[in-house]
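lol so apparently i was supposed to do this last week
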Amino acid sequence: MVNDVFGRPLGSLRLSVTDRCNMRCGYCMPEESYTWLPKASLLSFEELDRLAGIFLGLGAAKIRLTGGEPLLRHDLPTLVRMLAARPSLGDLALTTNGILLEQHAAALKEAGLRRVTVSLDTLRPDRMLAFARSNRHGDVLKGIAAAGRAGLGPVKLNSVIIRGFNDDEVLDLLSFGREHGHELRYIEYMDVGGATRWRKEEVVPRAELLGRVAARFGTVEPLPDPGSPSAPAERFRLPDGTVFGIIASVTAPFCSSCDRSRVTADGTWFSCLYAEQGMDLREPLRLGRSDAEIADLLTQAWQRRSDRGAELRLGTPDRGALYQIAGLRADPRREMHTRGG
Ligand code: SAM
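anyway here it is w/ S-adenosylmethionine bound
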């Protein structure tokens, strides 16, 4: 096990398999056009699997596949099968917008995927069309249902709540999760790269979410989660047993227990979602460095890790968007859709 400066282990890895997405959510990809990673720079499945093996060797037992939209990567179940065959893997999950999930759920399960998290910000197709420029709301709902049928549960639903966009659906989204047996997690709107329109007034804070849920459904009981102290979501239980979560990265950052790092689809490794610089792992992979040499690079970098990006943002006076569009065009690896969320 490798620990950073604050004693945080290198525990979980988010592997982005593409920077492309088939939605244009206003909090992540609001622009008309993007600078994409060059095709030749994208890691092959063999390279992704090899990197995963090196991270697992350093103690990272959990892997989450993400993107962009990971289901846009051709033949994803093949990668899932390669990763699932690694004996030291503790958990293998996928975060998706759900549009293509119905057609892939059974194959992903069969290949060894354990769980999925689906982003669902609204129950209204017209809203999704206006906010995320996609008319595929029906497919998202079918994808969620197919994941449940395929045994990719417990299915989690992620809802980014934004004042003036979907804050009037806070209770409806929870009711939807409750009715279908899926765990809803509210996510505070974050000022990550890509969120060029971020304004602090549009963040609906954890405290307000809890107040509204309690007023409607009764006492909200916090749940201890001793099994996974580094999990980003705080979990709560309603009197009827419904469990939901809140990821309060803006008003109550969890940097002190964050064990996550991210590899972009072109093999750049970031030790924090807010980190300015990443480490290029593609070059050592392609130059023929051994696993032990790459593990050594990772170990040395993690032992120097002192990131606490969300906590530092909390102390920023006149907090606004992290990057303007020119800064993102200059380096697309600053984008949330490249880092994987
Ligand atoms: N396309 C997939 C999806 O929609 O889940 C995976 C990639 S997406 C970047 C991963 C997660 O990041 C999603 O749950 C999304 O809602 C979240 N996300 C993106 N931008 C965000 C922001 N500004 N604040 C909070 N969450 C954000």
